[in-house]
Amino acid sequence: MAAASTIESPLSLTLKQQVNAPPHRVFDALIDPKLVCQWMGPKMMVASCNVLAMDARVGGQYRIRMDLRPDAPHAPGPLIVTGTYRTIDRPTRLVYSWVWEHEGHESKVTYELRPHAGGTEVTLIHEGLANAEVRQGHSRGWTACLQQLAQVIGAA
């Protein structure tokens, strides 16, 4: 596995999603290996998801494999994302690094969870994206993931 590189970039994205569940349930879905693949990976692109490692503690690492659908607009083969947990402040804040293994570029993902309207407002901030094209792709992907998170957790 190639070492991750960090490239300073002003490119970031911020998305918000309302989830009909309290913050502690939403937070748990972000770090529970049994739940992560239920919402991670846009279903229009990802055929299957497997948590290969998830050590949800500061300094712990995660590794997730997403097998793409044959008609997905990316290169064939699996996508593997890995990173290190930087902040775990249950149930309000989660921060981890984000590295697609095939690219090696490290960025940062932050979730902020706030009680709102009987549920939780999830704010996702993805910072340090490599370029505008990557930002656009992550915007589409994270939007779908947050909607899936709302469906999975709101239905539980």
Furnish the topology, listing elements before pairings.
Layout: E1 5-6, E2 12-19, H1 23-31, H2 33-39, E3 46-54, E4 61-68, E5 78-89, E6 93-100, E7 105-116, E8 119-127, H3 132-155
How would you describe the overall organization of this protein?
It is built from 3 helices and 8 strands; from the N terminus they run ββααββββββα. It has helices spanning 23-31, 33-39, 132-155; strands at residues 5-6, 12-19, 46-54, 61-68, 78-89, 93-100, 105-116, 119-127. Strands 1, 2, 3, 4, 5, 6, 7 and 8 form an 8-stranded mixed sheet that branches. A hairpin with a 4-residue loop joins strand 6 (93-100) and strand 7 (105-116). Helix 1 (23-31) crosses helix 2. The longest helix has 24 residues, at 132-155. It starts with a strand and ends with a helix.
Short description:
The protein is of the alpha+beta class and 156 residues long. It has three helices and eight strands, in the order E-E-H-H-E-E-E-E-E-E-H.
What attributes does this structure have?
alpha+beta, disordered N terminus, 156 residues, 3 helices, eight-stranded mixed beta sheet, 8 strands, Alpha-D-Glucose-1,6-Bisphosphate, Chain A, domain 4
